[in-house]
Every structure is written in structure tokens, then in C-alpha cells.
Write a structure and sequence with these properties.
Elements (H helix, E strand, L loop, with lengths): L1 E9 L5 E10 L4 E5 L6 H8 L7 E6 L2 E2 L8 H5 L2 E5 L10 H11 L4 H14 L15 H13 L5 E5 L7 H16 L3 E5 L3 H6 L3 E6 L2 E6 L9
Parallel strand pairs: 3-8, 3-9, 6-7, 7-8
Antiparallel strand pairs: 1-2, 1-4, 4-5, 9-10
Length: 228
């Protein structure tokens, strides 16, 4: 569960990204975050996994107060949050297997359990046969699937996807969305920032639209609502 109350964020350069956000997202929801460029979407997402702190207000994620959380506790928060980025952020000299396993090495998972879990998630995203490839040997869509596998290998309760289809062709984008829907169906909450009007309008989910640092719309089975 995610709850924000009266959240403001002003950066050191004086730019105010969020102007008073109030929102609650329940466990198991699939939420699109949409809005014009510069509206505050990225800041909204970064606050959830504590890459940024609010200037004012309260944020509670999985019963943890992010405003008062000590820095040493942030890694424990993030163990329950998977993050997928537009540009994949894979380790270029690591194999597919090693990229995914890295998330389990951090929590000192046993080698036997690690191998079992890594191969499970690679199978889930359709890349079990490419475990020994390095990122440069994969297509963009395959790299994004590796990134998703890495993000879910810890069984996170929450998956944040920041423009996960932004660099992909339409066919590959739909494949990524199919995988995200399967992950959501298993009970994982998904928050996806996107500029894809077609995806939002076709795969109907909750839509939170952010404009000028405020929530302009919050609709169940909403639409994109912007011209591209």
C-alpha cells in the first residue's frame, strides 16, 4: 500500500515539482501515471522508492514512513520494490543470468536457491535460453525483459516501471505489457509512468494524471487524455 498526504517537492534550484499530492494506491493495483513532460511524474515515482525525499508531507510505503526513514534502512525498503527503467540499466559485462542474480547476491541468497529463482524468472520473461548472453547480444525488447526479470527476482510487492516501452517498437511494447499484466495478476502492485496513449487506452487500468505538480485526474479504467 502507498499513501501520500500533502506531498510537496521543491528542488535546491528552486523548481517545484510537486504542489500537494494526496493519493492512495492499494496492494495489487495496476496504475498508469501520465501527464505532460515536466509535470512531476518522475519525481512522483522517485519519491516512492526513496530516491528523493519530499520537502513537505508524508509518504507511507508498505507501512514504512519514508520521511523519517534513516538512510541505512533504505536498502531494506528497496528489497520489496522492483524498478524497471526506460534505458534498461543492465550491467554491460555481465551475462543475462548474472544481471538477474546480482539482485539476489546483494541479499546473500544461497547459490542453490539463487539458481532456481533466476531460471524461474528468466523462463517467465521468455529468456531462459539466453542466460549466457550479454546485453549487447540482445534486442532492446530482450534487454527490457532482462530488466523486468531482475526487478521481480526478489518477489517484490511493488514494481515501478518508468517508461518501460519508451525505447521499444510497438510489437515489443505489447509483449512487455503482457508480461507486466501477468506479474500484476500474481498480486504485485504495478505503477507505470508512460507517454503511450495507445497502451493506456487499450489496456484499461487506473490512470493518475499529473499536471503542474498536482493530480489532475484519478480515474478507474481511465484514458490517456493527452494529444501526442
Amino acid at each position: 500500500m502507498i499513501e501520500m498526504q500533502g506531498v510537496y517537492k521543491t528542488y535546491p534550484n528552486g523548481v517545484t515539482a510537486l504542489n500537494g499530492i494526496d493519493v492512495m494506491i492499494e496492494q495489487g493495483e495496476f496504475v498508469y501515471v501520465v501527464g505532460p513532460s515536466g509535470a512531476g511524474k518522475s519525481t512522483f515515482i522517485k519519491l516512492i522508492f526513496r530516491e528523493e525525499k519530499p520537502s513537505k508531507g508524508s509518504i507511507n510505503v508498505n507501512n514504512k514512513d519514508l520521511l523519517t526513514m534513516k538512510w541505512k534502512d533504505v536498502p531494506y525498503l528497496r528489497r520489496d520494490i522492483g524498478v524497471v527503467f526506460q534505458d534498461f540499466k543492465l550491467l554491460p559485462n555481465f551475462t543475462v543470468y548474472e544481471n538477474v542474480a546480482f539482485a539476489l547476491e546483494v541479499i546473500e541468497e544461497s547459490p542453490k536457491a539463487m539458481r532456481k529463482r533466476v531460471m524461474e524468472v528468466l523462463d517467465q520473461v521468455g529468456l531462459k535460453n539466453k542466460a549466457r548472453f550479454i546485453p549487447d547480444e540482445l534486442s532492446g525488447g530482450e534487454q527490457q525483459r532482462v530488466a523486468i526479470a531482475r526487478a521481480i527476482v526478489n518477489h517484490p510487492s511493488l514494481l515501478i516501471a518508468d517508461e518501460p516501452t519508451g525505447n521499444l517498437d510497438p510489437d515489443t511494447s505489447w509483449e512487455i505489457m503482457r508480461i507486466l499484466e501477468e506479474i500484476n495478476a500474481s498480486g504485485t502492485t504495478i505503477i507505470m509512468a508512460t507517454h503511450s496513449k495507445e497502451i493506456v487506452n487499450t489496456i484499461k487500468k487506473r490512470v493518475i494524471a499529473i499536471e503542474d505538480g498536482l493530480i489532475a485526474r484519478d480515474e478507474h479504467r481511465g484514458e490517456y487524455g493527452y494529444e501526442i
